[in-house]
Amino acid sequence: MADSCNKSSKYNVEAAEILANEALHLPITEAAPIYEQLLAVYPTAAKFWKQYVEAQMVANNDDATKQIFSRCLLNCLQVPLWRCYIRFIKKVNEKKGFEGQEETRKAFDFMLNYVGADIASGPVWMEYISFLKSLPAHTAQEETQRMIAVRKAYQRAVVTPTHHVEQLWKDYESFENSVSRALAKGLLSEYQPKFNSARAVYRERKKYIDEIDWNMLAVPPVGSCEEEQQWMAWKRLLAFEKGNPQRIDASSSNKRTVLTYEQCLMYLYHYPDIWYDYATWHAKSGSVDSAIKVYQRALKALPDSELLKYAYAELEESRGAIQPAKKIYESLLGDGVNATALAHIQFIRFLRRTEGIEASRKYFLDIRKSPNCTYHVYVAYAMMAFCLDKDPKIAHNIFEAGLKRFMHEPGYILEYADFLSRLNDDRNIRALFERALNSLPPEESVEVWKRFAQFEQTYGDLATMLKVEQRRKEALSRTSDDGAVALENSLQDVISRYSFMDLWPCSPKDLDHLARQTWLAKNMSGKAEKPSLPNAVGAVGEEKGTSGLTSTSDQSSNVVYPDIAQMVIYEPGQKPGPGVLPSGTAVTSSTISSYDGILKGAPPALVAFIASVPNVEGPVPDVDFVLSICLQSNTITGQPGKQITSVTQVSAAAAPSISEPSGTNRSRPVPSGSSVRMTRPSGKRKGADGQDDDETASVQSVPLPKDVFRIRQMQKARGGTTSQTGSTSYGSAFSGEHSGSTS
């Protein structure tokens, strides 16, 4: 079984759960190695510790049980594990009389000091109070002391926001009333507001607690959604506890925050930000020693975390503990063979801050020939010497010494050029660029060429500026597939020469357009010869290839083009496809009933609007004509008592036109010369001007748009002009009728 765990991933949660379940059914001699193996990987898994220690208790291995508790209790602040500890203490001390009772009481106090503020600690408080009540009292003084101890326990319990806070309050009321009703009234009135506050905080606290998965194991973060949700849930709970919502004293509030951080680290054990937040909170609270202990624990949990080491060293240095801080830096350096360049740089800076510039210079001279001393170390030390010594010669000598070793590093060349720019040494800058560009391969010299061009824009004249630009193009053209395109001049060159910081000689729109053109030009250069395609298909393919959206050279063999020989022009009289109502088919009751379900729930205004829309054959109706009809429609508004009873009447209005054969000579509505008159119900209404308007007055139609080309096309197709008349009557139902006559 142990071998199977070794073969799986180190943090395989499923395998760990299986092993733990198997260990339950094994004797302790065989289960102990499995538990040790599991706890080496999951040292904060309280459920594994509890399972392990219970197995030892069943076997009556008291010494082994004590040893296990000493290893896990302070790192696993979980109530079930601590209650297991109390059971063990009771078992060990049950036959020791008064001495055993005192040991048990101390164990209860020890437990409540650590987990007494936990939201699940209600049963612990009840068990503690029951234990105090069970203590023998042989004299009145002992009875008084016992009552005082019980009262204090109750008073601590009822102000703690736990799941059992209301039950504890009821028990406290009963206790005080049983002792003295006169004294109970004053004590209960004093603690009633505190209890109310604890109960309110409990309700808020429970919302955050419920978001947390208390069964998860501590594994390194992999970026899963569940991990991020748990991280956010813990962050919210920590922020809640640090805000001291119950407004208790600072000491009690800090204990609750410590408990929350400790419980958080049981599950987010491999998160350096949680360790850092915990230590920082201790330091800000004035407990630097506690912060240092947190860092020491953090480095045991995450020994390879450079971030935590730097933060720990910073804390030690800030409080004046130079030697402890130096030891941390030396641990980052190790034996020097595997030390990173960043560790060397930070140690040089630390030595400069604490021991002076000479100590840092000595260290630099010792490690400058080390294989892991990169150009970054030279740059860092040269700039430090330049800023502190105020003498550019030392920094210049360091850069020159590094140039012999790092001439092939573009980053070093650029840093050296920046240093010379600070000195305003344009002659040496040009010499540096020329030396570097002669030794660097073209593919690594892009940034150096760019900086050289920028330098000439600042220090050179127009001739030198254009010359460097041309040399840059020639050099970089060797690295591209199409050197001719790279050598071409473009507006991009002008933009690069005449822009400054975030100021541009053109609009953002022009920048986007030029960037698009540059991209298109690069794609054009890699385009192969287009395949020969017939007529419009070839034109489309050519247009796509020009736009850079598709590459026909690679895809022409895979593209299936439509057979345009099978294409036919749409004719209204042709047989429609499946699912389309054929032109010339009469609208029957079954057809209309299919629309009933759709329009049954529609408002009356929508039904009226649909009825007023003319039936037009063909795939694309005349938009102008349809809009003109809609504008002239006097659409009904929803009024009580005037509901549309059936959609049959609506569909009937369109039935004559739908049933019309496509090949008949019956007239169809066209824009020319048509007018629509709409009759309203008789009666009078007041106009906006306060005068009575006759409801029977006809509404003159708005002139239809006259598109001459469109009218001629329709006349040619339909054989003449038509007219349309329509009437609309309002009442309990809606009806419409279209009639047409051949002009």
UniProtKB/TrEMBL annotation:
It comes from Opuntia streptacantha (Prickly pear cactus). Transmembrane segments: none annotated. Keywords: Nucleus, Repeat, TPR repeat. PROSITE patterns: TPR. Residues 547-556 have a biased composition (Polar residues). GO terms for cellular component: nucleus. Residues 9-511 form the Suppressor of forked domain. GO terms for biological process: mRNA 3'-end processing. SMART domains: HAT (SM00386). GO terms for molecular function: mRNA binding. TPR repeats lie at residues 272-305. Residues 654-677, 719-732 have a biased composition (Low complexity). It is found in: Nucleus. This is Suppressor of forked domain-containing protein. Residues 525-556, 654-743 are annotated as: Disordered. It holds the Pfam family Suf. SUPFAM superfamilies: TPR-like (SSF48452).
